[in-house]
Design brief:
Distance between the termini of chain A: 44 Å
Number of helices of chain A: 11
Shape of chain A: globular
Helix content of chain A: 40-55%
Oligomer: homodimer
Chain lengths: 248, 248
């Protein structure tokens, strides 16, 4: 098997070297040959290159360094606007303001983004998903002038890599593979599956630095606390509704 | 750039040759090195290989041929069950029963599925996304014994290819790329962007066979009618709630 896949890693620091529009277009064209629901291609990609636009966008990504240091930020958007406009221009009645249509667009968009990341990394670029896009979709939408029926889903920082990367650990594949039926996890399973992750030096450091009893508490109390999750869920749901989607 | 990406295509017919569990595990392990939110890996994959299980599963995919002819069906599930169990076993209070947590799991799952598809195709396998998983998530969940907090998101039919594949057309990349700000589409833009698609022989055949005036009407009246979209949205939302997620 191609070694790239097992050995890839995220880069969070980048050199000043330009990632040209031509290269981006070629890579996005290749990525668009990934599967898409009914071949509808329910997505758009906004390229942020201007430093002034990056500075406007960065707060929506909590100003994480990659959002400012990357040569370009690509915002992958679920886009039902273009398809609906096409239908309306052809005397067709589009019924795409519902959750299933939104899910199809989310899937199309995520598949495109991941295929782009793979292509870009194989071209020697570094990429970093900014995990903040659905938190501040409303703010991103303002900066990028997204119209009704367009939802930012994923942002990817892209540049030529520089500095160091961190090795990432993963669960053993048996931890997430089930044969024929889902085998629910016993306490023993959980202990075995998460043991390596909990014993890593960086994990122990996170626990200590945050004054917690376990790595899991770092996730629940520091990184993804219930209150934040619920607040940003409510903001996102309101944004989806204001962009023209029904969620009930 | 690697030719694979521009030239890939979906296969819907497969030979009888076995795709072994070892090969699937190796490919899924490689795919798991794709990015994941906060390295939480909020997914599980259920492998359906037994003919009896495939027959139980197929109706949920409207018995499309690929769902029965493929050597294996992989159901990629958004899984917050494993992570929540880990938290609960470590005296951490998980607040993951909300829409943002579900979105993170949807993204993780879709990224894994697409990375798997790329790896599998490069290994000489054929793959076909079954676009029906979120329609009948409740039925799939029953067949696969999915517990609370696990949602089937994507199903991929996998086998060694056989027979013919269909070339798929894609929009020109300029149709979905925007620089700095979203440039909304004029009627002229829409006409230009969709012209090639509308003039394809297979498109004209779809219009004629379905007795429609335009290709867009095939999408809105035949393939994705409002009534179906809304019905399956409601079914899916109810399923998400019954699996323990809040959507408001």
């Amino acid at each position: 098997m191609d070694n790239y896949f097992l050995n890839r890693h995220t880069w969070r620091t980048f050199s000043d070297r330009e990632v040209t529009d031509n290269l981006l277009q070629d890579m996005l064209e290749a990525a668009s040959h990934a599967p898409t629901t009914g071949n509808m291609q329910l997505y758009s990609v906004v390229i942020t290159r201007d430093v002034s636009q990056k500075k406007l966008l960065a707060p929506a990504h909590f100003s994480q360094p990659a959002s400012l240091n990357a040569n370009v930020i690509l915002t992958f958007c679920a886009d039902l606007n273009r398809f609906v406009k096409w239908c309306e221009n052809r005397e067709a009645d589009p019924g795409f303001d519902n959750f299933q249509s939104l899910m199809a667009a989310f899937l199309d968009t995520t598949i495109l983004a991941q295929q782009f990341v793979t292509i870009a990394e194989r071209e020697g670029l570094g990429t970093c998903y900014l995990g903040t896009t659905t938190y501040n979709a409303d703010k991103i939408s303002e900066v990028l002038h997204l119209p009704r029926r367009v939802i930012p889903v994923i942002s990817v920082a892209v540049g030529y890599p520089s500095g160091q990367y961190e090795e990432t650990d993963r669960l053993e594949p048996a931890a997430f593979i089930h044969k024929e039926k889902y085998n629910d996890y016993t306490s023993d399973d959980i202990n075995r599956i998460y043991k390596d992750k909990e014993q890593r030096q960086d994990s122990k450091r996170f626990v200590q630095e945050n004054n917690k009893q376990s790595l899991a508490q770092v996730f629940t109390d520091v990184r993804y606390p219930r209150k934040n999750n619920e607040y940003f869920s409510s903001v996102f749901i309101n944004f989806l509704k204001s962009q023209g989607f029904m969620l009930d």
